Amino acid sequence: MSAVTLLLISAIAFIVAYFTYGKYLDRKLGVDPNRPTPAVEMADGKDYVSTNRPVLLGHHFATIAGGGPIVGPISAAVFGWIPAVLWIVLGSIFFGGVHDYASLQASIRHKAQSIGAVIKGYIGKRGQTLFLSFSTATIILIVGVFIVLVADTFANVPEAATASVLFIFVAMLFGFFVNQMRVNFVLASVIGVIVMFVCVWAGMIFPIKMSATFWVFFLIAYSYIASVLPVWLLLQPRDYLNSYLLYGMMLGGFIGVLFANPTLQLAGFTGFYNEKLGPLFPILFITIACGAISGFHSLVASGTTAKQLDNERSGRFIAYGGMLIEGFLAVIVVCSVAYLTTEQFTQRLTELGGPIPAFSAGLGYFMSHFGIPETVGTTFVALAASAFLMTTLDSATRLGRYGVQELAEGRSKAFANPHVATGVVVVGAAALALSGTWSDLWPLFGSANQMLGALALLAVSVWLVKRGTKSWFTIIPMVFMFIVTLSALLVFMRTNFLGGNIFLTVCGFILFVLCIFLVIEAYRSFTKPKDTDTTVKV
């Protein structure tokens, strides 16, 4: 099969799903465009900020994408491109899209409170505490992993470092002029995008060459600042402007595939077991998270996105549409290496040092077929990939702050303080970032992330059942993800125990037990009717 055929089939599937299954979800979730959203009712100019759809899609997509849709699909390609693409397409439509959209709607129906608050209202306070503890720990793990990934990228690709630092200042100027000076949004967007690409050029001319350790400390400071500043000043405009860089990368890759028209030479299916990763089930479904379903998305949808949604009608465009765009990106990522033979694919991963450089080289090669020098295309893609990582990093820190504050509510005034709460996340992430490489942390991150997705689906399923909605569209994905996650944790614990890594074995065991306890709490909620917690704003 040619890569062009694969991309076109995937694109058609996503478009049809958006206008059919997406509308079905609208009906099942009871979307009402006349019902005011929390961003309108509770506007405070800092966290609750009503935002138009293009800007919010930019923030949401740039945040959920991260490095996952690049690292995951390429890593899982060792099983063959066919199982990887099938999981990406079907997962995005029936699992990830449902997970993201339902999480967003559940949050805005509860005054933009977190999934943890939904759990408190329908499962109980103990369930909320367990979920928040788990989700906060997962976010600290995510921030730690992405600090290492970004620092390594900046150290190895200094052009990306310069551009990313300049993006910060451009984003703050954009946010100030649009939100405070009321400059025309379209005009500001055009100028902002142009200046952003000038920053890319400046990065190629004046690269900032510093060590990975320097960038770790820089990113720790940046994450703290981004978490406590008003959302309109840095987080929102940075994600919005960066989204154009990401769209440009996707468009360049798509056009490049059309011009190059490569044949997929990578093995379609290599077998049910890989010596490096393990069995296809459940490892494939853990390795490919972003691009199919990712628990982190529920924290984004119910954390920052829910506080900015201007109208319930925009929810499908932002959450379900954003997941389908990410799925299409993941298919492009598969194509970026699937035109190689299996031997060439293995060699490229080894020589270039990982999935992100391999992806950049593949898209750079495709872009060379319509006139862009291969080295320029490869560098541009590397810059865009670093933007993915950076936008997830700052948003994740803010979400971690929300989690700590919610845990501290009614328990500790000190930890409810935004600066202290942010400090908890940043210090924990810094300890992880300085203690190991991203590859050491990634397997644990993958397991925790997918379990978080199962727990979010559990929360929205209980909410829907309690309000009298037949929710098989969330229950079926929830059951599947619990089976996948628990199976993966058993494989993870066995592998690390036999390898002598007791620390990771214990971490996996704790996650496994925590998951079982939450399932028990949810089962009790299903079987024993109870009134909604009056402390939860419904």
TrEMBL record:
Bilayer-crossing regions: 78-102, 130-154, 160-178, 185-208, 214-235, 244-260, 280-305, 317-340, 375-393, 414-435, 441-465, 472-492, 498-520
Main subcellular location: membrane
Pfam families the record matches: CstA
Cell membrane keyword on record: yes
Subcellular location field: Cell membrane
Keywords for this protein: Cell membrane, Membrane, Transmembrane, Transmembrane helix
Protein name: Carbon starvation protein A
Source organism (scientific name): Geobacillus proteiniphilus
